[in-house]
Design a protein that fits this description.
The chain is of the alpha/beta class. Helix content is 34%, strand content 13%. The longest helix has 18 residues.
């Protein structure tokens, strides 16, 4: 478990998570992945309330039904405007292995497997923006496949000090960049 900054506790983390979700909704973000030291406990507990706001909370740490590597919603939401993925201690490398195992179980032949099939089996879209907190400059072992072409913004504020202003600044920095997707320049 990550060390907590002085004064941080469950209430402070819950407030930070709430503010982060509210900011993501205001910014029109479609997916928000949170690797929270508490494992996203506060958001799981508020999943029904968030579902009323068309926010789906998916728990990547929870075993999926039917052997699927796809994270499942804690509370079913038909057409979410925001999907919050709670990333626990699950390894990004293990996610890739589970996706390949799922494809093999479905009878996929090695020559037929492609990037799209693996991405679909992972069940989480590619990440456009990866925000690292606490000044950390290492890419976490989280969504390894999906962050391959991500833009990375580092925020010096430690979790849970990150709030609306740093998130807005990270999104603004992302919007100023030319996306290259592994060599291809994205249209603006």
């Amino acid at each position: 478990m990550a060390a907590r900054p002085p004064g941080a506790g469950p209430d402070r983390e819950e407030q930070a998570l709430r503010a982060l979700v509210d900011s993501a909704l205001e910014l029109g973000i479609g997916w928000l992945t949170i690797q929270d030291p508490s494992g996203g406990r506060a958001l799981r507990e508020r999943a029904r309330e968030l579902a009323d706001r068309n926010v789906a909370v998916a728990d990547a740490a929870r075993p999926c039904s039917g052997g699927s590597s796809r994270p499942e919603d804690v509370v079913r939401v038909e057409s979410p405007v925001l999907r919050v993925l709670l990333a626990g201690e699950r390894s990004g490398r293990r996610e890739i292995v589970a996706a390949v195992e799922e494809l093999a179980a479905r009878g996929a032949q090695p020559d037929d497997v492609n990037e799209g099939m693996i991405g679909d089996a992972l069940g989480v879209p590619d990440v456009d923006l990866l925000v690292l907190t606490g000044g950390d400059r290492r890419v976490p072992d989280l969504l390894v496949w999906q962050v391959a072409y991500s833009e990375i913004v580092v925020i010096d504020d430690p979790w849970p000090e990150v709030g609306e202003d740093p998130l807005r600044a990270a999104v603004a920095e992302y919007q100023r960049r030319d996306r290259r997707y592994g060599g291809l320049v994205a249209p603006r």
